[in-house]
Structures
1.
Amino acid sequence: MNENTLTGWKPVSRPSSVSLRGRTVSIEPLDAQRHAAPLWEAAGGHDDLWTWMTDGPYTSQDAFRESLERKQAAQDAVFLAILPVEENQALGFASWMRIDTANGVAEVGNILLSPHLQRTTAATEAMFLMACYIFDTLGYRRYEWKCNAENAPSRRAALRLGFSFEGVFRQHMVVKGKNRDTAWFAMLDREWPDRKRALQCWLEAANFDENGRQIVRLEAFQTG
């Protein structure tokens, strides 16, 4: 049998608007009515957060809420609010998008992390929970991360989380009137067990001191 033959493969289910909870963060379906105010308080006025997004920035809370309503109603993506346990309010959001159930492929994208959420354990655990759902619950074969090729922080984040760089798609998109070359990253189902183990080890409470600072970097738990 050809090594590329898939025995027993069946199309997977589409991700649902689920609620997920970890040690430091909870994730729930994006709800513009509930989440617009805390998200605006956390992200409003920080126009730099929208530099690499396909929408924004927004000049008023009403306009921002309307954008969340469109995201909530989207048929081509599933948007989730990110709520750190300590604050217990939405400080960011992310989505599963470009969902291909026939081939078992989905992308994590449209990630907005307010300054309160950036570079936190909760942000990393949110990405971990979303990956667990895609691989462990739904059985996807491939999980993608894409960003503007000039977005260095996003590229570093993808590598840190265990995604592999696959190349740059030149002139891939036109975003806000500008050309976008897209850096492409992905993680496969056969790679996930090692990536999951590394993330679980890093997220253990024992890996953080009394001030919440990491003791061992995530990269140190990764085996390749």
2.
Amino acid sequence: MTLGPVMIDLVGTEITPDEKKMLQHPNTGGVILFTRNFESIDQLENLTSQIHAVRNPPLLISVDHEGGRVQRFHEGFTRIPAMACFGKLYKQDKEKAKDLAEKCGWLMASECLAVGIDFSFAPVLDMGHGISGVIGDRAFGSTADIISTLAHEFMRGMKRAGMAATGKHFPGHGSVKEDSHLAHPVDKRSLADITMEDIIPFERMIDYGLAAVMPAHVIYPQVDTNAAGYSAIWLQQILRKRLGFEGVIFSDDLSMEAAAPAGNFIDRANAALNAGCDMVLVCNHTDAAKEVLEGLGDYNNPASSMRLIRMHGHKHHGRKQLQKTQEWKEAAALIMPLSDTPELELDV
């Protein structure tokens, strides 16, 4: 059995009998975890083991564990700072900022891999212009050079730990005020303007070997009337052909408000897959996930399946072994004090 094109979530800390059937559905390819799925480290390890045991090859297990406002698990995990802290440090000490960003990427990835999570949807490559509240301090900075440099280091750390990186939100969510979870953001800039600024971090990260990309639920009307995640122009003509990206394309959550204009959930899934996504996320809506799994029928895309299989994590240490290493102790001691962002759980 290959990995299907749908990533779903779970309602609690254990797999219910109904959810197990969904996980066994041939159109399922992965699971995304949220804070509600975490009770303790032991429980989380047990949950990921059960998910991986459901299928062969194992389903992908993902999480949004960027740091700052978006860190799903806390107890037993190092608190990761918002990425903006590295951008601020970069203006004072470039080499120190780069070193700490690399260590932070390694630390985040190592801790997630150690408990059975394949990858975190990170890093954010959006521009931090202070326009978008939902991006805010999740961005490394406000210039393409700072973002590209620090995101590259963060990705290098993730890769060293054994985790593939996902850049988001292509081609850039940082220049629109509206939150795509709640509204329908529209960026009226020209393709030339976007290419000269927002796309640069994605372009450079692709050159550095970025494994996956998540497009934004944002409409750029001067390029296409469809949001980027539903746009063959953005995903196939620009991302694949012009930028030469050969990795995985994940849709953003199809239950977000900005995803609604594409129609019902089946329409949204088909629109995203037809535009060029390899896997679609359906979160926080069990009935919708079931609808998509059944509605896609005998979906088969061998190229996507081959790309997705590369997202499996390669952990080097179990959790207890990891925390005994000198590298973990030193990295945690350096990264922990950087975190000064108030906790705010967002399903983003």
3.
Amino acid sequence: MTLHPPATRERPGMNRIILSRFGPLAVFLALLASSSSFALPCADSDQACLRRVVEGHAVRRIAFWRPFMKGVPADRVRRAPAELIDYLVLDNRLNGFAETPEPVDVSPGFEADLKAALEELPAVVHRLMEPKLVGIFVVRNLGGTGYLEAVLDERDTPAAGFIVLDESVLTKTANAWFIWRENTPFRPDPEYRLEGRIETRAGDNRKNAIQFILLHEIGHLLSVGERFHPFWFAGPQAVHREGEYPFLDVSWTVAPGRKEFASRYEKEFPYRKDVVFYGTPRLDGAAAQEVYRALAATNFATLYGATSPYDDFAEAFATYVHGVMMRKPYEIRILKDGVERMVFRSCWAGKRCEAKRRILSEMLQAD
């Protein structure tokens, strides 16, 4: 399937290992933040300068956001404030995204879909989310569909997070978006086709596409300050012994050198390191059947979840809430010359995801 332009990539901000501190440029940045076209305080090539500015930005501290953290999650859907746009512009430059994010008034239709997607989530998700959600901010030209970044409290402890969505690229129905996402790791092949379904025909609309994307970002949000996996600011160096991060231990270990994580299924699932979503695909379309057959021998809930411990948790959370608690479908079909060759379904009813199900059901007071 043809890849969409970069503006359709999901972009979890937490995948960037960035420490947050107040810096001397934060006040200067706030003064400049009224326009997304201001002159940057650093050249794009000066990564050290950009990193210092991003690390010291006011929006990375919970003190900035406390006035926003009122009401239920649906009350926290807002136009992005100038300071957040400032931060996103700088963060894009730091991480090599060409787009310049801009504030936008949320259109009535998109706001209705977003709030309905939130309101339909189980009550326990709302209860867990409310203390940690700074807000959900809508922009355009983000360089991705969704983005989550954590903020620190007065003790420099991860405490909350903000979600950013780009309304202009969130236009697909649920199944169309899901089919596009699952195709992005594979190079097109005329004989093979990958199809998918996360909604019934009646529920196949934009609101439910937004809902599934939100569930992934909420998964990241709910991991902030918890012990499911090490906080992404710290990375593998934060792991000192088994049992310290129970969810991590189910599927991951720390690789020699302590600079990256390794899957416990590297032999059973050798394709994992070539799985790249929203970028240049490394896998042939003809390999899709074998990739998903190998994935079914692991305890990763989705192919996206196999890419990192952080997305492993976010995808497990999203598919568990979506499929188990909300009783919605999740399946991927591999076809060759129009003939179905295999079906990959949710793992939550089987044994392969049993250990993760226990952790999530305890967290969500389900089952």
4.
Amino acid sequence: MSERAERGAVVRNGGLHTTVQDTGRDGYYSLGIPPSGAMDQFSYRVANMLVGNPEEAAALEATYVGPTLEFTDDRRVAVTGAEAPITVNDEAVPTWQTLAVRSGDVLQFSMLTGGARPYIAISGGIGVQPYLGSRSTYTLTGLGGFGGRPLAEGDLLPLGPQEHAAPPPTGTAVAAALRPDLPGVTPLRTMIGLCSYRVTEDSLRAFTEVEWKVTKDADRIGYRLRGGRIDFVDREPPHGAGSGPANVVDLGYPIGSIQVPGGDEPIVLLNDAVTAGGYATVGTVISVDRDRLAQSKTGDLVRFEPVDLQTALDARADRNARIARVRQSLRESSTPA
């Protein structure tokens, strides 16, 4: 067997939009290249912890339907994020837990029962070549990951060496209290700003009171929502803005910014979105709650909750503290009594 085959996984079924992702491709936003990276950073990082990888190692992110993988050597595997029944060789195995697989074993997913995106980490990490400092996939232009595209049947997915992987013992699980919850209506803490002056006070207030439904147009580029109406302030369009009420002179779009190209379907721009444009943005979903949005699927409900900068920073600190608790619990599980 070749060296490559010894460190690979055969893709028997690519699932639905399964891509290689990591922490993201930072530093190129000004050049029009978005960061990409795992949309649910908490689940992604914890999956890597469970198999002994560095937290920034490349893993797999699927949407709705996970892939079927056949391993060509012995590995540790963990599945986190969305809730989905999974099997190894047709035997049910748990998520959020360190699993052992051997050469010839097959990992398979059934339909999701909650959430939207499962994450699959494999000891040694996904061994694709970095592009601009990241192994993340940006499919719109075919950058990074596995040939810049989702996995497909027949692919041989390269895996990295395991010499430095130190996974916790097989069967080690993340406590339920440390896992993300999947509420019926997902609250999205939002910093109101940028172009919120373009909508009426009544519309802005209603924007934060309405429960918005995720439409079928929900992917790594952005989530289009439906459920309310946004009215704009009358104005004389400035030069270069265009005549549409939602138009402004071009501006940059932060990841998580809420664009309102029309009055009834706001779009939350996400990891693979364009970096600038000419539509008004009424606010930005804070980074921590983009993890929550990543686990919302078509038909789910979300609600925007206005917060200030300090609340956003506190939320980030809280998530870091929760990650530290997971890290500590896994370290303790690896320490002999």
